[in-house]
Amino acid sequence: MLNRDEVIEQYRLVDRVSPWLRVNFVSSLDGAATHDGLSGGLGNDDDRLVFDTLRMLSDVIVVGAGTVRAEGYGGVRLSDSDAAWRVDAGLPPQPRVAIVSSRLDISPEHPFFTEAAVTDADGRPIVITHAASPADRRAALGEVAEVLVCGEAAVDCGVMSEALAERGLTQVLCEGGPHLFGTLIDADRVDELCLTLSPVLENGSAGRIARGGAAASRSMKLMHALPAGDMLFLRYHRLRSHPAG
Length: 245
Ligand SMILES: NC(=O)c1ccc[n+]([C@@H]2O[C@H](COP(=O)([O-])OP(=O)(O)OC[C@H]3O[C@@H](n4cnc5c(N)ncnc54)[C@H](OP(=O)(O)O)[C@@H]3O)[C@@H](O)[C@H]2O)c1
Fold this sequence. Notes:
Layout: H1 4-11, E1 20-28, H2 45-57, E2 60-64, H3 65-71, H4 80-88, E3 96-100, H5 111-114, E4 126-129, H6 135-141, E5 146-149, H7 157-166, E6 171-174, H8 178-186, E7 192-198, E8 220-228, E9 231-238
NADP nicotinamide-adenine-dinucleotide phosphate binds near residues 27, 65 and 180.
């Protein structure tokens, strides 16, 4: 079993001022991003600890609408001890949550909004979309979320990062899914990938962790490889100079 303090140390972000985009995924050994259509089937308690710690260390958790729809994603709320750790570190008790969507085919009644840990004006969920998304849906979601228009015909990842940083949300954790990850790779906006390798072969037709973008080859540097039983926790940085730890 991994130890919480060790995990915090391994993933701590040294520079919280410069914008930093970290992506977290779990994959089977043969590259599947899902088991029975969901990522949860690939994890275990150690993966949960890393997953929760990465949330605790972030300013905002960004997720694609496909993952929200597929996983019934919502109700992101840190444990009391993780919230207390953040307060001691000078952070708000809970990170913000943001959904990226073009179609905005999500109800204001979805748990992503109704079960958000913070719903007041300063901390409510964020909807990241673009100018060509349906205006009526933008208006409806504006009742329960802060809507950021980042780009003209698709979400521009650079504009998104700037808009989040303007709100003090520099430490971004992206929890997927594969299409959003593909978009981020396309735009060369991925600073870090935290990848859990789950000791299982899935075969079948499950997709891999990135898809949809143009072919690209972005070199990454291994920062650590943390084994826990048969599970392996990998942390990679994009190969370019950056002061973050
Ligand atoms: N293994 C893992 O760690 C992991 C992690 C997360 C998810 N998953 C799995 O991945 C699957 C979902 O995959 P997915 O690729 O559909 O999910 P996704 O990447 O979360 O969502 C794709 C959707 O996000 C929106 N989007 C992404 N990039 C955009 C951009 N640049 N501009 C505007 N909108 C953008 C679009 O939403 P609209 O359609 O609303 O326009 C798009 O259809 C699920 O089975 C889930 O379990 C696995």
